[in-house]
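Extended Data, panel c. Modelled sequence:
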Amino acid sequence: LDNQTIFKAVVSTQSTGEARRMGRHTGTGKRKGTANARMPEKVIWMRRMRVLRRLLKKYREDKKIDKHMYHALYLQSKGNIFKNKRVLMEHIHKKKAEGLRLKALQEQAEARRARSKAAHERKAVRNAAKHAEMFAHIEDNVEEES
């Protein structure tokens, strides 16, 4: 083969490669291998796991999640719970919001209990004073009669 033919073959291969990178010439008629042979599921899985685990590590280092939540989410991501990074982030935000909401509800309940207890104590003091006054009045009447 002369150099011109080789050069032409290289150029046409390069241009076809460029076209393929843009998505041309990749229809069903051009495919020989199975989908798994063309892009292995294992490679996709490994990429996804690395992305999710990297995010979890980053969140743990930034103190956005504690080590217990990290461990639970790590196992869940290994168990194929999260489809992608966005879903994992949404899950984390939802969990944190739920935790904050529960904390606020607990504080409200505690405040309500404290108010109720104070009201009961005030009522008990008031009733004790009322009873003391009533019994003192009765005792005065008994002393006057005798």
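Residues 132 and 139 are 10 Å apart (CA to CA). This feature is highlighted in the accompanying rendering.
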